[in-house]
Amino acid sequence: MKLTSSVLVTAFAAVSVVNAHFSITFPGVRGPFNEDNEPQFCDGYTAPANRTRFPLTNGFITWEASHGSWTIGVLLSTSTSPTSFGNFHTSSGGDQLVVGYFQGTGTSGCIRIMPTAAGISGIQNGSNVTLQMVFDGGDGRLYQCMDVTLDDQYRIPTDVRCANPQGQPPSNSSSSPSSTQSGSSSLVKTGTSGGTSSPTSTGSPSKGGAVVTAVNGLLGLGLAGVLAVILA
Ligand SMILES: [Cu+2]
């Protein structure tokens, strides 16, 4: 938020510090809200200092903002101590997103977080990961970080409300076997992550992914067969 008068800026800061730019109300963030540092990595906090528990599935982030229209995305790092944007990049150098960028309006909301659905390897119960919410309400990209331990036993307190969660895992990570192009790339990705993640795991992620893909393929063939019968 850029106001032209410094008097106005001061007055606004005095009455509404929490709502300036954007702020996160759940889960806990790295450090006390610092409006001036929000254009910087993790609101200016370069190391985890406040790790909290977070659901392995069906999690969400709640937020408030002084901007009424925005673009939001959420990055995820599997580093136990991410200290720079490089820790939130994929191996090919792009943003490692757990929620793909989306646009909307409103001065508060909640974002659906599905860590295991984003196609990021190395995510399981007990993982220490960091979520970095990216918010652009018209005055540049702003950042807040949440260092969490993914816990499949943890339930978000019922007084933390999320009536209408928004956001989805990035589209390139959702498996869609019906499309030749994304189907083949998702097979490659599944195999790669299965080979590099959790050498002591009891189940094989790549095997599971292959089975799911195969079943989907059979279902697709079945549907095609039914359609062929109906059309004949
Ligand atoms: Cu702002």
Beta content comes to 25-35%
Q: What is the mean predicted local confidence, pLDDT? A: 77
Helix amount, in percent? Answer: 10-25%
Number of strands: 8
Identify the overall geometry.
Answer: globular
By helix and strand content, what is the structural category? alpha+beta
Give the domain tally. 2
Give an overview in words.
This protein is α+β, with helices and mostly antiparallel strands. It folds into 2 domains: 6-171, no CATH class; 175-232. It is 23% helix and 26% strand. It has 3 helices and 8 strands; from the N terminus they run H-E-E-E-E-E-E-E-E-H-H. It has a 5-stranded mixed beta sheet, with no helix packed on it. Strands 1-3-6 form a 3-stranded antiparallel beta sheet, with no helix packed on it. Strand 7 and strand 8 form a beta hairpin. Helix 2 (180-196) packs antiparallel against helix 3 (205-231). The longest helix is centred in the last third of the chain and has 27 residues, at 205-231. It is globular. The termini are far apart. Bound molecules: copper (II) ion. Residues 1, 21, 67, 137, 139 line the site of copper (II) ion.
